[in-house]
Amino acid sequence: MTVTSERSVPRLEFTDAEAGSKEFPDSDSRRYNYFEPSKRKQSHYEDVTVDVQPDPRRWLAQGWLYSFADGKGGYPLDWTALKAWGSDREVPVRKPGSGGQGYGWPAHGWHEFRDPNEAWELTMFRYNASVVRQLTQNIDAARQTKAFDQWRTNWIDFVARHVGAWMHVDHGLGMHVFVQANRRGPTNMHNTTFAINAMHRLRMAQELAQYNMTLTDEIEGFDGTAHLTAWNTDPAWQGVRELTEKLTTISDWAEAIFATNLVFEPLVGELFRSHLVQQAAPGNGDFITPTLMGAEEYDFAERDLQYTTHLFQLLVDDKEFAAHNKETLQSWLSTWVPSAISAARTLQPLWSQPDVKPARFEESLERVKNRFTDLISGLHLSIPKELAQ
């Protein structure tokens, strides 16, 4: 009979070094609160967005994991002239277990921003799918009921040339303003919001392109290439084209967002979509095109403008750099308002082209100026004298 001797195994001894041994407020909580929620309880939007992009000023102990050719790592704060509290602090020297090195968290005020729409990837897909579905149904219903047969002849040419031309604005701004800002923003909250704004513009550019192809099939004599001629050579569009191209060249991500959503859109975008196309279309027998323009107006007025005003409100109220930010924003207004007014005025000939015309151009321009004034006043900025041009 074989006898097996009992093996000697070292006895386990536990010390206070194990993770989780320390007691602290919320130790027994089942929720992980590593950020300050904007409301009483953290939202699902915050759970999937806040600090998803790491930051050495907060949690990334080993510093940025990559750098650019010039040695800058991650998301340099000098990619914009604006500042949020704590921006001028040195990045703390970090090592495993070093913590915040005496800095209070959050390490700088950029992390205070939350999208008031609480939009993230899933909500973006759901929202865009819903809009596309509704617009597709509207166009399909118009085809089945021969609604395009009711359009006046001059209006057919107007839609082909000028409504079609707007797709170039949407595509240019979507790809080269908001997609670029998506890479340059300082936090994941900013970048997610800019990406969604980009999707709104790109979705609308595609909708207009598909609408153009549908009308080419449905309306005899509809010129599906007229929008290219209008965009490239029509004098009425050259001011808008020049301004759109200038916006795409801005390297400062905050200036690009500010100039596009708080100057170009209120003074040019809403002027064209709301005060020309949507007002003139019904009188010329067209009840379909306003649904496309209305969808884009909703994207901007009810979603993109909300996050933009919230973003810059935080900066003009910043506890450390409010004066600096106001001065910078004021200089941007002086730069971009004259260009926007000039671009808006080059569109004036379009108001006389439909058979049934909208309100006079000067009345329309005055309305968008008033709305612009309200937006800028809400940020406690001075109305630039160039607005009177």
From TrEMBL:
One Pfam entry name: Phenol_Hydrox
Catalytic activity field: propane + NADH + O2 + H(+) = propan-2-ol + NAD(+) + H2O
Signal peptide (from-to): none
Enzyme Commission designation: 1.14.13.227
Region (Disordered), start-end ranges: 1-32
Biased composition (Basic and acidic residues): 8-32
SUPFAM superfamilies the UniProt entry points to: Ferritin-like
Keywords per UniProt: Monooxygenase, Oxidoreductase
Top-tier EC class: oxidoreductase
Protein name: propane 2-monooxygenase
